[in-house]
């Protein structure tokens, strides 16, 4: 059988102007057999000869008129000359081209192309589809042709209302055939956006190099100009005629862009003159973050590089050891709160041990988006330049908090007290989690807040400026997020806000508020505070996260001969459910070196293997171990007898339905696990191997990784990228103690 070649997408391509842009399109289409042939039109015969020799074009001409007569429907004329020469090319098109032939161009300014077409034709002809490939290089000429130039690059088309549908389709398909991502945009939007993102940087780069080149000491300057100058000015090597044309063709948008920049540069100048360190740090930290975020977008990474690939899998070899001494990363709940309260405080708060995981970084980014200057994190150290309770600024767009329920719910409370409007959005998982639990009490306090549908799903939309009044709220469920949300809104509400919980939940908000010098009363099940106070900056030492430690507490407990020490673990009494439950199951956990850091109890935990037995988990321990159940289910699967959990329906609304997802995975591994409405019944026994789905839930992924220590076969865990939300170095630490985990992408 003959291999069939794909049918060409277009007929002939006529490239007018065989430079970088035109020659790259020609070679890209030819390489993919996406056109029948290429004719190059250039002013100089030498260019044509060079392009034919390089195989970029099949034939050449010195003017369009020499080839125009042969062209028919399906052929495309691509105008790739400097912007201000487009008009004369269009005059030739009008004279010689049949209206069935499609015309498009690659000029960086679209308004001037439209104006030229109107000048020549009277109105823009339906055969003309103005376009602009956002790809280029400082190199120019036919020698710079690159068939891969447009791959994964955006191609903006700015068709007018009267554009011919067949012409538009043809140009769309042509660009897609060479790997471009085609978008349509109005002409003026294109010119404004490009003025900011392309024309302004080129104007600055040309001007900067010219400024330095004319300096008397320029030899020295260029001799010593290292990375910064070189990186910043690469684009000043671009084609001068092309850029001369662009600046003139896009005059008004370029002027706006230069004015905006000049004003900001002048402001920066006065900050330097006045030694305004706060302003300088503000500009630089915001710009660094924006640039880093842009780099991540370009490489499709998330905050934590490990989240860049959404299909990370863990392959666990069965067996292994659990030995050594480790410190797991900082507590997630405390890290969130350190950024929130540090931002709302007066003065500079220094944080150590901050969790550099995706969730806490999402909170950090949200406050940067509201104008707070935050330095770091660098090795867990963060410096927050607090703006006071009333110093947050309106964010430019929605605050995106990724996978993090804590960020969204606590922020909802703070944002309800602000004078500006805001919107909170999250990823796919968070977008399915209920927000009415915070929307309802906040509404009762007077907030203008809404979420979507009956369940109150994100996005959460908040109208600023609504006066809040204090209230006495009894939580319908044991939730520290709801308690904290209401207390944080209480900072802005007239009167005394009281929250009563049905069972004790983590009290980091109350403790940390006190650490910032804010009075919070806790009496039995009730916490209360009054507005009108201020938070004073402080130092925060974030303990290691007991929720992350839990994976290793179980790992060592179920693996014969284990002996592991976990240092500096947060042992807040509202968090120690996992230790209590494991001890009740027979675990050997020794607590030593107990101390208090920054109002939070901390200790070292030594855990050794011990045979576990199944238990009825006391319901009062449920809120104290709420995030640790996935891994506790693994402990139950290794215990002798039956373990029963009740009163844990909250597990169904976490990053996944943790009851169902764990039951499904355990069943795949041959464990007898029966989910119930509000818990699970697990019969201890043997664990087999298999492929389990984590549903993008970090704690499920890590729990099944721990199960491998007692498995008879290997376990493949799907969808593990979100481990980076709470425990970015889990795989490394797991392997360092003797587990056998490999990560595949
Ligand atoms: O306040 C907090 O930092 C948290 C509270 C808990 O959520 P709920 O309040 O929904 O129980 C917990 O599951 C979450 O990981 C962190
Ligand atoms: C439930 C969790 O977090 P959040 O609610 O902040 O997404 C968790 O970390 O297990």
Automatic annotation (TrEMBL):
Top EC group: transferase
Catalytic residues as annotated in Swiss-Prot or TrEMBL: 627
List of residues binding phosphoenolpyruvate: 332, 405, 433, 481, 658, 699
Pfam families tied to this protein: EPSP_synthase (PF00275), PDH_C (PF20463), PDH_N (PF02153)
Domain Prephenate/arogenate dehydrogenase intervals: 11-302
EC number: 2.5.1.19
Pathway: Metabolic intermediate biosynthesis; chorismate biosynthesis; chorismate from D-erythrose 4-phosphate and phosphoenolpyruvate: step 6/7
Places the protein is found: Cytoplasm
UniProt signal peptide: none
Catalyses which reaction(s): 3-phosphoshikimate + phosphoenolpyruvate = 5-O-(1-carboxyvinyl)-3-phosphoshikimate + phosphate
Keyword terms, alphabetized: Amino-acid biosynthesis, Aromatic amino acid biosynthesis, Cytoplasm, Oxidoreductase, Transferase
Chain residues that bind 3-phosphoshikimate: 332-333, 337, 479, 481, 627, 654
CDD domains membership: EPSP_synthase
Molecular-function annotations in GO: 3-phosphoshikimate 1-carboxyvinyltransferase activity; prephenate dehydrogenase (NAD+) activity
InterPro entries per record: 6-PGluconate_DH-like_C_sf (IPR008927), Enolpyruvate_Tfrase_dom (IPR001986), Enolpyruvate_Tfrase_sf (IPR036968), EPSP_synthase (IPR006264), EPSP_synthase_CS (IPR023193), NAD(P)-bd_dom_sf (IPR036291), PDH_C (IPR046825), PDH_N (IPR046826)
Function: Catalyzes the transfer of the enolpyruvyl moiety of phosphoenolpyruvate (PEP) to the 5-hydroxyl of shikimate-3-phosphate (S3P) to produce enolpyruvyl shikimate-3-phosphate and inorganic phosphate.
Family note: Belongs to the EPSP synthase family.
HAMAP family hit by this protein: EPSP_synth
Assembly, per entry: Monomer.
Name of the protein this chain belongs to: 3-phosphoshikimate 1-carboxyvinyltransferase
